[in-house]
Amino acid sequence: MDSVLQGSRILPVLTVPDPATTHRLAEALAAGGARCAEVTFRTPGAEQVLETMAAHGGLTVGAGTVLTRDQAERAVAAGARFVVSPGYDQDEACAAASDCEPPS
After folding, report:
1. Using an 8 Å Cβ cutoff, are 62 and 86 in contact?
2. What is the distance between the alpha carbons of residues 64 and 14, in angstroms, rounded to a whole number?
């Protein structure tokens, strides 16, 4: 996480209700100097928003409000470079890390 946030003074946390606005939002964030952003997983279009922002290339994007292992796996598949959860769950954390063994 340190390498993701290095040099960043702010981490916008985004709840994007309409994925159609994502490209313009990514452009505005990058133009304003943002280097990374967190997309909350509280909206039905969160995966699409992550994919669009990750494809933009000007931002490192992650997923927030991730509550389950399934959400963590979907977020990473959509391009999230980090995952934030309101509580620690080892199974969920392992879904986001390629070198982790989940608990048995």
Report:
1. no
2. 9
- Tokens 């997983």 belong to 41
The sign of the CA dihedral 84, 85, 89, 91 is negative
Helices 46-56 and 22-31 sit at what angle, rounded to 10 degrees?
40
**Phi and psi for 13 in degrees, rounded to 5?**
-110, 120
pLDDT (0 to 100) of residue 10:
82
Distance between CA atoms of residues 81 and 62, nearest Å: 5
Reported pTM: 0.80
Q: Where are the alpha helices (DSSP H) in 1-104?
A: 2-5, 22-31, 46-56, 69-77, 90-96
Average pLDDT over residues 25-35: 93
Q: H-helix or E-strand containing 36?
A: strand 36-40
